[in-house]
TrEMBL record:
Subunit structure: Homodimer.
Whole sequence portion shown: 239 to 600 of 600
Annotated function: Catalyzes the first step in hexosamine metabolism, converting fructose-6P into glucosamine-6P using glutamine as a nitrogen source.
Naturally occurring in which organism (per UniProt): Mesobacillus maritimus
Name listed for the protein in its UniProt record: Glutamine--fructose-6-phosphate aminotransferase [isomerizing]
Annotated coiled-coil segments of the chain: none
Catalytic function, reaction form: D-fructose 6-phosphate + L-glutamine = D-glucosamine 6-phosphate + L-glutamate
Active site residues according to the UniProt entry: K357
Length: 362
């Protein structure tokens, strides 16, 4: 049938979508460049972002995780304070809003009801709204003042992969574009660095077998798994854990390395899998020492590091990319881990139980 044709030779949409990520990043780069090869974003969007004294990002699930990274990029390169909120909680715990806020809704589908609930209320208050979405004709796109597209192409698998990396790429471009307009002196060329990140992603998707083999050793029989990281790696841990739990049903949590000792370390038993992400040079010593702490308590640690700060004993190493773009790259082995762990257990990768691709009820 039609869906089989779209899947091509792939056994599952998720694998196809993981593989598409380098192409998606390259597509985004071409869509946000003018004929002179310069970064180009709609003028109205530019002025709405520059005019904001604070940005409130609203999202759910994987898109929320992209927002956590997006905040870091925007604060660093555009110098605008950003808050990231889970959509379903925002109206209950309404923060004290700034004088001139901009609301950014991050949603692959553009249909998530929890986001729409916030959008409707914020529009009533007269606030400006921007949707970052993968679906041009979606509700959130139609109802917000402005839309930025993520150009990832249709995402069919319930577990989001390429939409997440696309969202972060768009944030990197937006952050630098605004920074440039504000005359900030950023020594970061997002066009160049994102294209290097796309190449790095390609290297990783060509090493699937390596990841598949790690699944046997680390996630074979387990009922739980922990992901630890610091800085940007922590946010990717949250996403890696979400990927694993939503499709393989292994109970998984992402933790900030420093928080382990405040509770989670009590859960470490003999052979408990702990996936440690090490892509941030400034915290690599501390996260490696966290890994040692859990190893001392019996954990089976799988270290995923980045070239340049890797150790020989690390089980997987991703190519070196700019320190602020590592999430785009380090998430790929985590997506593949979740994929193969699910295959290994014989579950439906593309259609996990109890979950929907887009949740249109609050
Ligand atoms: C559902 C999906 C998740 C997704 C979340 C937000 O729960 O299963 O994969 O991250 O909705 O979706 P959105 O379309 O708003 O990004």
């Amino acid at each position: 049938d039609a869906s089989d044709i779209e899947k091509g030779t792939y056994p599952h949409y998720m694998l196809k979508e993981i593989d598409e990520q380098p192409l998606v990043i390259r597509t985004i780069l071409s869509k946000y460049q003018n004929e002179f090869g310069e970064l180009s974003i709609d003028e109205k969007i530019r002025s709405s972002v520059i005019g904001a004294d604070r940005i409130y990002m609203i999202a759910c699930g994987t898109s929320y995780h992209a927002g956590l990274v997006g905040k870091q990029l925007i604060e660093k390169y555009s110098q605008i304070p950003v808050e990231v909120h889970v959509a379903s909680e925002f109206l209950y715990n309404l923060p004290l809003l700034s004088k001139n806020p901009l609301f950014i809704f991050i949603s692959q589908s553009g249909e998530t009801a929890d986001c729409r609930g916030v959008l409707v209320e914020m529009k009533k208050l007269g606030h400006r709204t921007l949707t970052i979405t993968n679906v041009p004709s979606s509700t959130l796109s139609r109802e917000a003042d402005f839309t930025l597209y993520t150009y990832a192409g249709p995402e069919i698998a319930v577990a989001s992969t390429k939409a997440y990396t696309a969202q972060m790429a768009v944030f990197a471009l937006l952050a630098c574009d605004i920074g440039k307009l504000k005359g900030l002196d950023n020594d970061f060329n997002p066009l160049k660095e994102l294209s290097l990140a796309a190449n790095a992603m390609e290297v990783i998707v060509n090493q699937k077998e390596k990841i598949e083999n790690l699944v046997w050793e680390f996630l074979g029989m387990t009922r739980n798994a922990f992901y630890i990281g610091r800085g940007l790696d922590y946010f990717v841990c949250l996403e890696g854990a979400l990927k694993l739990k939503e499709i393989s049903y292994i109970q998984a949590e992402g933790f900030a390395g420093g928080e382990l000792k405040h509770g989670t370390i009590a859960l470490i038993e003999d052979r408990t899998p702990v996936i440690a992400l090490v892509t941030q040079q400034h915290v690599s010593a501390s996260i490696r020492s966290n890994a040692k702490e859990v190893i001392a308590r019996g954990a089976n640690v799988l270290t995923i590091s980045m070239e340049g700060i890797n150790n020989e004993s690390d089980q997987f190493t991703v190519p070196e990319v700019h320190e602020h773009l590592t999430p785009l790259v380090s998430v790929v082995p985590l997506q593949l881990l979740a994929y193969y762990a699910t295959l290994h257990r014989g579950y439906d990768v593309d259609k996990p139980r109890n979950l929907a691709k887009s949740v249109t009820v609050e």
